[in-house]
Amino acid sequence: MIVDMKPEDIVGEYQEATLTYCDGKSRKVLYTQLETPYPDGKLIVSTTTPDGIISHVNRAFVEMSGYTEAELLGAPHCILRHPDMPAAAFKDLWDTVLRGEKWQGFVKNLRKDGGYYWVKATVIPNVRGGKVVGFTSVRRKPSRSKVDECIALYPTLI
Amino acid sequence: MSYMFTVSPDFAPDRLSGWYIFNTWLQKQSAEAIHLEMYNHYHDLHQAIAADKIDLIYANPFDAAMLVREKGFLPLVRAKGESDEAIIAVNADSNINDVADLKPNTRVAFTDDPDVRLMGMIMLEPADLHAGNIVPLLSDNHVLVAKHLLKGEADVGIILAEAYDNLSGMIKKQLRILVRSQISVIYHSLMIGPRLQSRRDDFQKILLEMDRDEKGGGVLNALGFSAWQRIEDEEMEFMIDLMDTLNT
User: Fold this and answer.
1) Closest to A122 (Cβ–Cβ): which among B180, B183, B245?
2) How far apart are CA A126 and CA B49, in angstroms?
3) Which of A59, A140, A144, A149 to mutate to test the interface with B (most CBs of B within 10 A)?
């Protein structure tokens, strides 16, 4: 289940936006301009069910997202979606992995405290016995130049 | 019938005798004739795998996908609490303080150890470095990677963290760690091939009880491990998926 973000969780001045996901559900998100730098040497790893519900997270995911593991498990992966991210990027992600292919892109993620962090994300379908049983997503530190390109490009896609 | 056991060529040189002792112990416990063949280079190992010569292998995670998906291997155990990590190191006097300081044509020393190189190259990505814009310096082992740094022949070196930690104090004093990976989910695994798979449960049981065996504990010690832990099939599939996401 996806719930609105709460003002008491937010650190710093925030703006509001309402995101509507591809399944038609909406969520009020609160976001700030505070960036959390991606730590060197770490990978954020998660798996989801075929419907995009988080089924596994590693410690780096918990640290960077600001949510507890209990809050993340069972939540839809779009809990991390930032309003600055164009919906077209996620459509491309889902279209690609549902074809059974690997997707890679640069993503601005929303933290529980309203801040954000940039990642280079790779998502692959988990195929077991010929069936897609879920997806694995691995995020790593992006280069600043790629992030800057995305900061210029993404607003033109929204 | 005799079976063949091998160990990924990135084994620590001072553990070589430990692997021979382990093989002797395993033969006795399993009552199988197992010959240990050590390869110094991945090229030779991969030729042996392609020729279906191997029945038991302590495999690099990079090879695990191919062993499972193309050669029908199954996981047995992994060293308890151990994972593969890599280090990006520079000469202690280098003016590079952050990976982001690196520029194209950086001279990068590494070995042919594929998972360490993969992890290292991922840690260089924040500087927009990739295989196409670095000057590679392929080295025979991790000590030679360190020597390239000491002699100023390389700007950065990619070294298996365990190998870095085992370098002499004198060498480490002249090096500096730029980044140490904290991936935790990539590890070597002992895997069993199709010809021996009817004995998979027996081998797993023997290995999982090894640390409690009178002689087994000492053998594990010779390998630098405390105990083995079971790898479930899904755990192995997860690591293969993970390697797949990283290998892009």
Assistant:
1) B245
2) 25
3) A140
Shared domain check, B163 and B204? no
Mean pLDDT of B2-20: 93
Say if residues B236 and B242 touch (Cβ distance below 8 Å).
no
Residues 55-74 of A with CB under 8 A from B: 58-60
Q: What's the CATH number where B146 sits? A: 3.40.190.10
As for how many domains chain B has, the answer is 2
Residue A46 pairs in a beta bridge with: A57, A137
Q: Across the beta sheet with B135-138, what order do the strands follow?
A: B135-138, B107-110, B156-160, B86-91, B175-180
User: Nearest to residue B224, comparing CAs of B9, B21, B1?
Assistant: B21
Q: Which residues of B touch A43 (CB under 8 A)?
A: 122, 183, 185, 246
Residue type at A98 in one-letter notation: L
pLDDT at residue number A1: 67
Distance CA B73, CA B55 (A): 8
Per-residue pLDDT band at A21 (split at 50, 70, 90): confident
A136 vs B245: CB contact, 8 Å cut-off?
Answer: yes
A130-155 residue pLDDT tens: 899 999 999 999 999 999 999 999 99
Max Cα distance, chain B (Å): 58
From the list A136, A137, A143, the residue facing B125 with the nearest CB is: A143
Nearest-Cα residue of chain A relative to residue B126: A143
- Please check whether residues B73 and B104 belong to one and the same domain: no
Provide the residue type at A158 as one letter.
I
| Cα distance between residue B197 and residue B74, in whole Å | 8
B245/A141 CB distance under 8 A? no
A45 touching B (Cβ < 8 Å): yes
Nearest to B33 by CA among B43, B45, B24: B24
B121 and B99 in contact (C-beta within 8 Å)? no
Segment B186-202 shows an average pLDDT of 97
- Contact map slice: A 5-34 vs B, CB within 8 A: none
Is 3.40.50.720 the CATH number for A7-157? no
Question: Could B183 and A43 be called an inter-chain contact, meaning their C-beta atoms sit closer than 8 Å?
Answer: yes
Residue B103 in this model has a pLDDT that exceeds 80: yes
